[in-house]
Design goal:
2 helices; two-stranded antiparallel sheet; about 10% strand; about 30% helix
Length: about 60
């Protein structure tokens, strides 16, 4: 499936998407509607459940 390029001149451009690095793996991940609607974006630290579980396991070992 091809995506149309986002153009700024058509009046229907997308809003800027927030992103931040994962606290465990460092990969950037973007804000999701679920987090934004509940004002939880500042509390989210990990990009996935796997990274959250690995970080918890690492804390338990230390």
């Amino acid at each position: 499936m091809r995506r149309r390029p986002v153009c700024d001149d058509d009046g229907m451009s997308r809003p800027e998407v927030r992103s931040k690095p994962c606290a465990y793996c460092g990969r950037p991940f973007t804000d999701r509607k679920r987090w934004s609607g509940r004002d939880q974006w500042d509390q989210v630290l990990y990009c996935s459940r796997g990274c959250r579980a690995k970080a918890a396991a690492q804390r338990r070992r230390a």
